[in-house]
Design a protein that fits this description.
Layout lengths: L33 H15 L11 E5 L2 E10 L5 E2 L2 E2 H14 L4 E12 L4 H18 L2 E10 L7 E10 L16 E4 L5 H10 L16 H10 L5 E3 L5 H13 L2 E5 L7 H10 L13 E4 L4 H9 L8 E7 L6 E4 L5 E3 L13
Parallel strand pairs: 5-6, 10-13
Antiparallel strand pairs: 1-2, 2-7, 3-4, 5-7, 8-11, 8-12, 9-11, 10-12, 13-14
Helix pairs in contact: 2-3, 5-8
């Protein structure tokens, strides 16, 4: 890590594992880990009622007029608004498009809700809107409805965005963690950890020898290429908050299968590995915004992997492990030294406000 023009404000960083018995919301409740799950299960679900069939996933698969629809919503509060490799506008499109893609659906329409802070420059709002529109065109999705609200100065970070999306799920596609069985192969679409480290480096004015950019991208085309090989993929997940570790733990818990990951097979770029070593982070827990993890039947794994590698967003795809009958609901990693370590569900979050 090279010298910086200003030292990072370590005192402003959020503890990644705040106490769970606090009576108030803390940053960890939004981190995609154990605390997020407890908030949903103990507060929201009892109030809202029954969830869609298939349980809690990135998007809900629902029946409407004889069609199977994927429906998802997401809010984006990232700071800073612009970062290496993207912006909050890109995230607002790609995050929702990817949630739909994890159900096998190609996004068709989005809504966009803008929450603007009083005093933010209109030029900044314009840049965000332009980025959002460009990302939507790239993803092949239309923004067809929206809303704008303004909050008082000091009650926001310039721009917050909510997007909701709908898309059609093709016949024969049934992607959900309950379909995972021992013997399934675990495939990741490429290098992990880029988005979280890119956000942290920009926010805290950290500079590394090699520039690290977010992997923010829409994954609908990659998923279509995979489904063209076989519609019998078992589950897909985009490892955003909580990183690859959170996604694998969620799948293991919902399926009842164990998961074994070969640590050396996980594609971690050297700059991300170096940054994480300096900052005391585990790349498995760092957020991504343009990657997916798939559980694939073993007899289809080679063909699916080849199709992924033929797509620009899957060129770095790799097999990293398998589902097993042992230690049901638990994720373990085989280390390069021959040992085994448990990969727990994160409690809160390592890096706050990454999406």
């Amino acid at each position: 890590m090279s010298d910086t023009t200003a030292a990072p404000d370590m005192l402003s960083w959020t503890c990644p594992a705040p106490l769970r018995d606090r009576p108030r919301v803390v940053m960890g409740h939004g981190g995609g880990g154990v605390m997020s799950a407890e908030l949903v299960e103990q507060v929201f679900l009892p109030a809202f009622g029954q969830v869609a069939p298939g349980g809690l996933t990135d998007s809900a698969a629902v029946e409407l007029g004889g069609a199977r629809l994927a429906f998802s919503t997401d809010s984006f509060v990232v700071r800073p608004l612009f970062f290496p490799g993207g912006s909050i506008g890109d995230l607002a499109v790609n995050g929702t498009v990817n949630d739909l893609a994890m159900s096998g659906a190609r996004a068709a329409y989005l809504s966009c809700g803008m929450i603007l802070e009083e005093g933010v420059e209109l030029a900044t709002v314009g840049r965000v809107a332009e980025a959002l529109g460009a990302a939507a065109r790239t993803a092949g999705v239309r923004v067809v409805t929206g809303d704008t609200k303004v909050v008082e100065a000091g009650h926001g970070d310039g721009v917050y965005i909510n997007t909701s999306g709908i898309g059609l799920i093709p016949p024969g596609v049934d992607l959900r963690p309950q379909r995972v069985v021992p013997g399934d192969v675990v495939v990741v679409s490429g290098a992990i950890g880029l988005h979280g480290v890119a956000i942290l480096s920009e926010r805290e004015n950290l500079r590394f020898e090699v520039a690290i950019e977010s992997d923010c991208a829409a994954l609908g085309g990659l998923v279509e290429a995979m489904l063209a090989v076989t519609p019998d993929l078992h589950v897909l997940r985009d490892p955003t908050r909580g990183g690859l570790a959170a996604s694998l733990n969620e799948i293991a818990a919902a399926s009842g299968a164990g998961v074994v990951v070969q640590e050396r097979a996980v594609p971690v770029p050297p700059p991300v590995a170096s940054a994480c070593a300096v900052l005391g982070l585990d790349p498995m827990y760092v957020a991504n915004e343009g990657k997916l993890v798939a559980f694939v039947p073993r007899d289809q794994a080679d063909a699916v992997l080849a199709a992924m590698r033929a797509h620009p967003l899957g060129a770095g795809a790799a097999i990293i492990g398998e589902a097993v009958a042992d230690h049901p609901g638990m994720v373990v990693a085989r280390t390069g030294l021959g040992g085994t370590r448990v990969v727990d569900m994160p409690l809160g979050e390592q890096l706050p406000r990454i999406c």
